[in-house]
Design brief:
Elements: H1 2-27, H2 30-55, H3 62-82
Helix pairs in contact: 1-2, 2-3
């Protein structure tokens, strides 16, 4: 059951990233780009959780997951701080 939840969370983050980046390509609003890149990173983070917990439980990817999550959130914070009008 947890595998399904991890997969659904990953797919949801991917859908958010695609929708945000598509809206950016149509609209040109740079904050959409930063949010889309953040969700792309969160998709990678959730994929790493799936691999870490389900596929390779004997290998710890904890540090890599945390770094990817930190970079993803830093991208969004950068966009929020420097793209305000």
């Amino acid at each position: 059951m947890t595998e399904i939840v991890y997969a659904l969370v990953t797919l949801t983050a991917l859908a958010c990233a695609l929708l945000l980046l598509r809206a950016y390509s149509q609209n040109g609003e740079r904050l959409l780009m930063w949010a889309g890149l953040c969700f792309a990173g969160l998709t990678l983070n959730n994929l790493l959780v799936l691999v870490d917990v389900v596929v390779l439980p004997q290998v710890s990817l904890y540090l890599l997951r945390q770094v990817v999550g930190l970079i993803s959130m830093a991208v969004l914070v950068y966009g929020l701080v420097f793209e305000t009008r």
